[in-house]
Amino acid sequence: MAISRTAQPQFNPYGDDDPLPAVGTGAWLAPRATGPLAATLRLPGSKSLTNRELVLAALANGPSLLRSPLHSRDTALMIEALRTLGASIVEVAGGGQFGPDLLVTPGELGGGSIDCGLAGTVMRFIPPVAALALGPVAFDGDESARKRPMRTTIDSLRKLGVDVTDEGRGALPFSLYGTGAVEGGEIEIDASASSQFVSGLLMAAPRFTRGLRLRHTGERLPSMPHIEMTIACLAARGVVVENPEPGLWVVPPSEIQSLDVDIEPDLSNAAPFLAAAVAAGGSVTIEGWPDATTQVGAQLEHLLPRFGATVTRSAHALTVTGGGPVRGVDLDLSASGELAPALVALAALSAEPSTITGIGHLRGHETDRLAALAADLNGLGGAVTELDDGLSIQPRELHGAAWAAYEDHRMATAGAIVGLVASGVEVDDIGTTAKTLPQFPELWAAMLAGRHTDPVTMP
Known about the structure:
Layout: E1 28-29, E2 37-41, H1 47-59, E3 64-67, H2 73-85, E4 88-92, E5 101-105, E6 110-115, H3 120-130, E7 134-140, H4 151-159, E8 163-165, E9 174-179, E10 185-189, H5 196-204, E11 212-216, H6 224-236, E12 242-245, E13 248-251, E14 261-262, H7 271-280, E15 282-287, H8 300-303, E16 310-314, E17 317-322, E18 330-332, H9 340-347, E19 354-357, H10 369-379, E20 383-386, E21 390-394, E22 402-403, H11 409-419, E23 426-427, H12 440-449
Parallel strand pairs: 2-15, 3-14, 6-7, 10-11, 18-19, 22-23
Antiparallel strand pairs: 1-23, 3-5, 4-5, 7-9, 8-9, 11-13, 12-13, 15-17, 16-17, 19-21, 20-21
């Protein structure tokens, strides 16, 4: 996939007509760390959990309350998609510190037009839900979204008897015609490009007339923890997903129970802040860290010590402390690919070589993340080589230069990490972090100021 440095118009995460803060309108000079860090942060809710719970709540047998959900571009797109299909989603006052709670009431599913933006969860989760609607549903998204793989979703719906029109693209835009029901049954898919293909089908499957017996036929399946998250969310709502053997899931037809849910903080969004402690020295603490979770970001507790960090746990908090040289690593991130941009940025600051593999599927994310990371780091004087399934990083002293975000939130935050050490790193579009963390620039500044952050409440 070609890499383009052209910035796109930004989405306003605040849901009103006011302009975005000036920090997102042009190049953002990544601040350099002037000494060891000493910060304590709270982060907004998990995007992965928020969007899964929104889908399940819209398919449930009664109203559900989502407490402390994420408010970001991806979740706003999911909310609008579900509203278009007939769900009522209303903001209500709650105890969350980053915005209101969400009351979701299911409705009769009908047709409409869905804007997927650049949200993989909307692109892969909503079509199986839309297949249950009565009427036509059209899907499109950002220009970059049209490059993301969707053939598995389209083909799986056809195997289930759904009328889908895509003119052979296997990508956005496409449309389907729902008849109000999906027969279900047994299908095979190749979900090698994204675990979201599996999760999307599993969440709608309880509403299929015969349920679903889903088999993955590919040689690999990335990001298995995300599928485990989906299964856990279904189980909490009374749906038992059987997994009798690797790559096979069986979902019986059943009601999805209404449920009030507390959304955990987004642990993947913690990655740049915790990596900062390793890069700059000192410590960063994330409050509200769950004792047990299905989130991929939980693996940071075990991955960051490989770079030389010390990780400690206390009651509902995780602290990462750095101070020594950043170590080179040899990592397989096939189960935690979304952490790769932050960890690759950290590896580029080491005086030792690193190899990070298991991330070939990241070529089909918001951008080709392997090509993007190599291009940006090499532009700063690095020596990064693309592999078939990862990146090889050789030690080089980095210097300031332009850092392209490529409309990708995790690319933008990776640039911020490098900028802690290399003076003059200019991220071209820090506003793209609104995809999953609109408050990123403010939280980053608070971390560097060394203060205990009061959450930045969404208007």
